[in-house]
Amino acid sequence: MKISKLVGYQVLDSRGRPTVAASLTLTDGSTHTARVPSGASTGAHEAKELRDVGGKFAEKFYSGLSVQQAVSNINEYIAPKLIEEQIDLETIDNQLVLLDPSEDHSKLGANATLAVSLAGAIAAAHSQNRSLARFFNPEGVLNIPMPMVNILSGGAHANRSLDIQDVLIIPKGAKSFTEALSWIVAIREMAAKLGKAAGHTTNLIADEGGLAIAFDSTEKACNFVITAIEKVGLKVGSDVSLALDIASTQFFDGNKYNLTNLNKSFSKEEFIKYINNLVSNLPIISIEDPFAEDDWSSWSEFMQISPKNLQILGDDLLTTNLTRLNRAITEKSANSILIKANQNGLVSSTLNVLKQARANNFNTVVSARSGENEDSWLADLATGWSAGQIKVGSTHGSERNSKWNRLLELEAIEKTKFINPFN
Ligand code: 2PG
Ligand code: MG
After folding, report:
1. Integer distance in angstroms from the first to the last C-alpha of the chain?
2. What is the pLDDT of residue 275?
3. Which atom of ligand 1 is closest in space to residue 393's alpha carbon?
4. CATH number of the domain at 3-129, out of 3.30.420.150, 3.30.390.10, 3.40.309.10, 3.30.390.50?
5. pTM of the model
């Protein structure tokens, strides 16, 4: 089967900002569409999405956020090279690398390359009569990942109502994804109720559907979520544990870590101790970006003193980038990686990063972005790639629930196993 048509165009994401969509038509007449996500707490080492800041493509009413340059790159440069080609993910990704050999995909835009690469993967799966999950894992049992779900939002996703970006929960005692999700929904609803009862009248829904309830300290925020877990009748620790995304690059000034709500600044050494106290005194089993994206020494120092079995997760540090992952493996900077396709720019090289991480005993957490859309390919990638965990935000907003619902669908219709990396 061949590619007969490829069209890029601009659509909206869950924040109402423009993003890139690509629709790829095959010679059997079927059309396959992918839309790309976008971050807010974006790491400096991520692949570069193109935004029309000034220049001939800039659209007045989108304040520098339109993506017409990236769209034009699909239609002018990428489509002519792919039309008439056999549908094959490797062929597509190789062609994209030939057209833009830069490591960060800055010439075509990672939003252009990823949209085409994803639409190509979805179309290639169709050409084999398979779902995207089954395209990557055709035989046997499909592994459904453990969800890591946002309850409280802060940082760049919620107008800094917390110094850190997220307090999340991991339903590690659940026996199935279906059960896990029911616990999560109950805890989130309880947290909303408790928030109102405590006079947090705003209870704002943040970018990822989490609650933007303000707390001046991370301990208080964690204890609030612990109360919500207990109030629904679940056991903290054995049923449900906490995870934090510190997103510390956001408040590191190159020298000090500045927690504004706490009204305290920490040297690197002090911050390592502060983080270690948090994870030692609270039921936290995963900590993401505890240190800034280029503060490599704090990461490796923390790895040496942190509690055994703690998941130390690199997001801005690793940016789904093979070179940075290899450095982290050598320097023992982390033991887990967040996998975001749009940090990388291509489906096949994102998978290569995940494979390299797994080969080096890193936990793998496939993740959505704060700016999402209705697509559910993330659930298929996480499942088809047998990632241990998936992070999508909260259980509010259809751009989040489309992924959870796809996992529910897979659990209902396929032969599956629910993965528990914390056993
Ligand atoms: C993160 C992500 C998702 P963003 O930091 O892990 O929560 O946020 O997409 O804004 O980078
Ligand atoms: Mg993060």
Report:
1. 44
2. 98
3. 7
4. 3.30.390.10
5. 0.97
